[in-house]
Amino acid sequence: MGTIRMIFFLGGVFGVIIQYAGLNKYNVISAQSELKNNTVIKTILLTIGVGAILLSVIIGWGFASFHVKPFVLGGVIIGGLIFGSGMTILGYCPGTLAVSLGEGSLDALIGIIGGLFGGLVFTVLLPHIQWIMGANLGKISLFSLTGTHKIIYFSLVFVIGILLTYSAFLINKKEKNTDKKWIIAGIALAVLNGIVFLTAVTNRPIGASTSYPYLADVLTNITGNAYFSKIQTPGNWEMIFLFGAMIAALVVSLIKKDFKIRLIYSNWEKQKGNSKIKRIIWAFAGGFILIFGARMAGGCTSGHIISGGMQLAVSSFVFGIFMFIGLVITGKLFFNNKQ
What we know:
By secondary structure, the chain is mainly α. The protein is 74% helix and 0% strand.
């Protein structure tokens, strides 16, 4: 699983990449829910496109292995919708919360607290909502469907990877956006995740949301259950990883002299006003919903959509689709779109 220093360093690299392209910014993510800024979606598409090809080669050479998330039907679909809703309300992802906190965002801190409560409640409720999760259809991916036919598998990987990459650039072309940071970030995230996958490095994918129930359960001493036993190792890994991301963001923002304590950003003020109490309440609620949905689905933006997408896992693509549906629908309902 890698040493603590290695995990911390890799998290720091992740934080710098996310911060460089502004993928952690509240204004960027909230605008994505309104379909007014597609930086997030095109970066994800590029990361998956490039990453799928890169990862297939690495695994094909025997330097890494698959870590596909199981397709738990109800959990992935319902969790995806809930996660997308929380992402809109909060304006952050589980991983970007840490990066924004490093920059001084107080709403990110409130979101993290809400996420800890969401993770704790999920741990307690899981035995009672197991029926909602639905059938476990297994770890289905392109490789599991075509792996015995290697020529077909690698051919499809390259075709899908190129199509996803093309889609990212097509979206950018329609936006007429000249900023190239998302391109650098997308490729860098694919390479970073490929490195994390390496057996000689950590032998696992990048993830973030498992750290929330892990830390919440530890802090409240609710560790004597099957769920904590399941998440203990990945949760600890992700906690160290996100801590590295937060510290890296803090250092970079201090060097650039743009560290600033703030609670309300312009897009929130434009849509919801400048009430601090209102922002605190919604940030907490958004964080709670975000992590609860992520735990239902078994992953988040980084662990499910990006890491799972790079493995061309069915569960991850289904999660991504329903996350986007939840994101956009909530954006329409939550924000006052009169323009």
